[in-house]
């Protein structure tokens, strides 16, 4: 509710300026739903290269607990404007909401079944994202987008999809068959994300792209650490860094926000300086810069704690 009041205030005050895509394209139709991408191009005169290297396209996957959300939410406009002003293209992508209408119970007796439903919802989202990438590859000249130069980014549920999409490109599954041969992401930016796994601790068959994590250590919606029942579990930012990335010498940046909850999932504009440094240093220049930072920032917004019960029991979708 507090999020909605903040959004309403910003809209009424004119802070959320309209950010219209240059084009909207249907990339698939699944389960009776038309799936689209919105494409945005850099602002006129914005620097689109760094050190002679083309800046990547940022693919954005929205959040909403797999029950709500939209690719063109006006809440994203300030962040999109920062990216476009700095010379980045944006592709904002649809995916099917795999938990819409589902009954979930995260209590002791229902958590395993509910976790399995979440895993299926993530897999559906990954499948749709891969289909969007195939569409971009098939229409790269028309869109002016290099499919080999994409950084995937997501918030909350979208971050879970983004992290899982990167895992699958490194450890191929049946879903990766649709991707162009040799496809890899250039980087990943996760705002309060986790990997849902039914095979235990996530494992990459080949080294993943540089990954940037933002997460509050009190997050009650998407775990900051890990929650596992046997081999089925959710592995949050802190667990992924400790148990996987750092252990194997992979490249990561993690920004930890003590005392923050799921509000970090919506803090794209406030964390832009960290994103810019990651994109320029780790992604474009390819430096193996490792960051593990605990950040106390009074300018970061603080929302009321968003819990799983709030998302799946108290909200009407």
**In one word, what is the shape?**
globular
Fraction of residues in H or I helices:
25-40%
Number of extended strands = 14
Poorly predicted tracts of residues = 1-16
Q: Give me the CATH superfamily.
A: Alpha/Beta hydrolase fold, catalytic domain
Number of separate domains: 1
Give the radius of gyration: 18 Å
Q: SSE order, as H and E?
A: HEEEEEHEHHEHEEEEEHEHEH
How much of the residues is beta strand, in percent?
Answer: 15-25%
User: Ends: how far apart?
Assistant: 13 Å
Sketch the major β-sheet. 9 strands, mixed
**What CATH architecture label applies?**
3-Layer(aba) Sandwich
| CATH domain class | Alpha Beta
Which structural class best describes the helix and strand composition? Answer: alpha/beta
**Total helical elements:** 8
CATH fold-level name: Rossmann fold
Mean pLDDT: 91
Strand arrangement within the widest β-sheet reads 1-2-6-5-7-8-10-13-14
Tell me about this structure.
This protein starts with a helix and ends with a helix. The N terminus is likely disordered. The chain is about 30% helix and about 20% strand. The radius of gyration is 18 Å and the shape is globular. It has a single domain, classed as 3-Layer(aba) Sandwich (Rossmann fold). With about 325 residues, it is α/β, with parallel strands linked by helices.
Overview features:
single chain; 317 residues; alpha/beta; Rossmann fold; 9-stranded mixed beta sheet; 14 strands; 31% helix
Structural topology:
Blueprint: H1 2-13, E1 23-30, E2 33-40, E3 49-50, E4 53-54, E5 57-61, H2 77-85, E6 89-93, H3 111-138, H4 140-143, E7 150-155, H5 157-170, E8 187-191, E9 194-197, E10 211-216, E11 226-229, E12 232-236, H6 237-248, E13 252-257, H7 272-284, E14 291-294, H8 308-314
Helix pairs in contact: 3-5
């Amino acid at each position: 509710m507090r999020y909605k009041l903040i959004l309403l205030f910003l809209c009424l005050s004119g802070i959320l300026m309209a950010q219209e895509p240059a084009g909207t394209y249907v990339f698939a139709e699944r389960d009776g739903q038309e799936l689209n991408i919105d494409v945005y191009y850099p602002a006129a005169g914005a620097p689109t290269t760094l050190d002679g290297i083309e800046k990547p396209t940022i693919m954005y996957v929205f959040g909403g607990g797999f029950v709500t959300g939209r690719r063109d939410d006006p809440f994203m406009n300030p962040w999109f404007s920062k990216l476009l002003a700095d010379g980045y293209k944006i592709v904002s992508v649809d995916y099917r909401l795999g938990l819409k209408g589902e009954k979930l119970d995260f209590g002791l007796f229902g958590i395993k079944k509910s976790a399995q439903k979440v895993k299926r919802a993530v897999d559906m989202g990954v499948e749709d994202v891969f289909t969007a990438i195939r569409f971009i590859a098939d229409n790269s000249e028309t869109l002016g987008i290099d499919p080999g130069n994409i950084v995937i980014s997501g918030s909350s549920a979208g971050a879970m999809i983004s992290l899982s999409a990167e895992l699958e490109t490194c450890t191929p599954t049946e879903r990766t068959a649709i991707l162009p041969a040799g496809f890899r992401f250039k980087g990943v930016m996760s705002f309060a994300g986790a990997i849902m796994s039914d095979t235990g601790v996530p494992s990459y068959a080949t080294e993943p792209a540089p990954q940037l994590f933002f997460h509050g250590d009190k997050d009650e919606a998407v775990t900051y650490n890990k929650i596992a029942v046997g081999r089925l579990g959710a592995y949050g930012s802190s667990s992924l860094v400790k148990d996987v990335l750092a252990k194997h010498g992979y490249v990561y940046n993690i920004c930890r926000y003590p005392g923050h909850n799921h509000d970090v999932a919506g803090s794209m504009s406030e964390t832009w300086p960290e994103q810019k440094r990651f994109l320029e240093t780790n992604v474009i220049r390819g430096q193996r810069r490792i960051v593990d930072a605990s950040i106390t920032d009074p300018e970061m917004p603080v929302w009321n704690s968003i819990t799983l019960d709030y998302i799946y029991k108290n909200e009407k979708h």
